[in-house]
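Appendix C: a fully annotated inverse folding record. The material below is reproduced so that readers can follow the format used throughout the book. The structure is listed first as tokens, followed by the designed sequence.
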């Protein structure tokens, strides 16, 4: 017998929408800034945390890019990634597919390979010491131009073995997926899978573009898909996963209240929904806090929690056999009685 809360905390799960730069906790940010002799414009952790009050995506992105400015050495990328893996492991995350934003670093003069090596070394230790499996997804910053994205893709070709997919993030409205059609075409030719943030603040039309032009295997966020019933039917028939991020949606005012979050409606329509933390250091919770908050707000049942955890593996880029092994772990766990 256990409580639904403990059931949620313990259920085996995957995380599929997680920006590694968004896991940089204020304490670690200050520590890294100090050793790199970088001045942070906030005097203390408390003062910095007070700035985490966002009205929209752009408000957040301004602070998020400022935060990435402390990352200079390979060790900095290692430490940030390792801290996330330990946290994820403690929350029974068996598998994580992790975004990184190379342009947020290379545009400040950091070498592409410093970033990739630091992150990758931590991921390897995550597998060896914690038994957590991971994949890496390289995102293009959509507020920058096509040429910059193409250059970034070319840099990634030297590290093809370490990067599974490419994605698209940053300021959505005014930067539609179509802007990057040729970059994603090239990425596909080079063997990368593709995903894209779409329908977070942008319209359903951007989700159509992500599907039809960028040939994505998953839609990140996708909230605005619900504005277009034909699109919903298309997503359902393609079994296209949406990586939903409840606390992010609340903090960035994509929803005004978690009680009004569309997640239950999404499940009822038959969409393949997963729960994720997006930028946990900024949005007040890692993956378990996201499950707990949305479950509380929408009064999710044990069966719905099990479905979400199963979906997280189904929607992953793991090979079929490993997927099934992990789903079996969820199913075994799900026999536990709630009381
Ligand atoms: N949306 C878009 N870009 C981002 C996000 C997000 O939630 N997090 C980090 N970059
Ligand atoms: Zn995101």
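Designed amino acids, in order:
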């Amino acid at each position: 017998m256990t409580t639904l809360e403990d059931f949620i905390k313990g259920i085996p799960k995957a995380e599929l929408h997680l920006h590694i730069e968004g896991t940089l906790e204020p304490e670690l940010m200050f520590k890294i800034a100090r050793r790199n002799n970088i001045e942070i414009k906030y005097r203390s952790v408390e003062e910095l945390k007070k700035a985490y009050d966002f009205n929209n995506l752009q408000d957040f992105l301004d602070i998020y890019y400022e935060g990435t400015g402390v990352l200079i050495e390979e060790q900095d990328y290692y430490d940030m990634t390792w801290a996330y893996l330990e946290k994820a492991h403690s929350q029974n995350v068996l598998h994580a597919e992790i975004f990184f934003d190379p342009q947020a670093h290379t545009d400040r003069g950091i070498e592409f390979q410093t970033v990739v090596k630091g992150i990758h070394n931590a991921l390897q230790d995550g597998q060896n010491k914690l038994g957590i499996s991971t994949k890496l997804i390289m995102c293009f910053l959509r507020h920058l131009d096509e040429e910059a994205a193409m250059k970034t893709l070319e840099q990634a070709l030297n590290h093809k073995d370490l990067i599974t997919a490419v994605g698209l993030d940053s300021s959505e409205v005014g930067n539609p997926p179509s802007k990057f059609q040729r970059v994603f075409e090239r990425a596909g030719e080079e063997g990368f899978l593709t995903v894209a943030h779409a329908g977070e603040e942008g319209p359903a039309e951007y989700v159509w573009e992500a599907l039809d032009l960028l040939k994505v295997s998953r839609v990140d966020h996708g909230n605005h898909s619900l504005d277009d019933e034909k699109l919903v039917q298309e997503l359902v028939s393609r079994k296209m996963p949406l990586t939903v991020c409840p606390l992010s949606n609340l903090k960035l005012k994509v929803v005004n209240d978690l009680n009004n979050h569309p997640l239950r409606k999404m499940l009822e329509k038959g969409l393949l929904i997963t729960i994720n933390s997006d930028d946990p250091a900024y949005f007040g919770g890692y993956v378990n806090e996201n499950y707990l908050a949305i479950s509380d707000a929408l009064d999710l049942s044990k069966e719905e929690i099990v479905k979400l955890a199963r979906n997280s593996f189904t929607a992953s880029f793991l090979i079929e056999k490993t997927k099934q092994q992990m789903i079996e772990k969820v199913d075994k766990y799900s026999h536990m009685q709630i009381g």
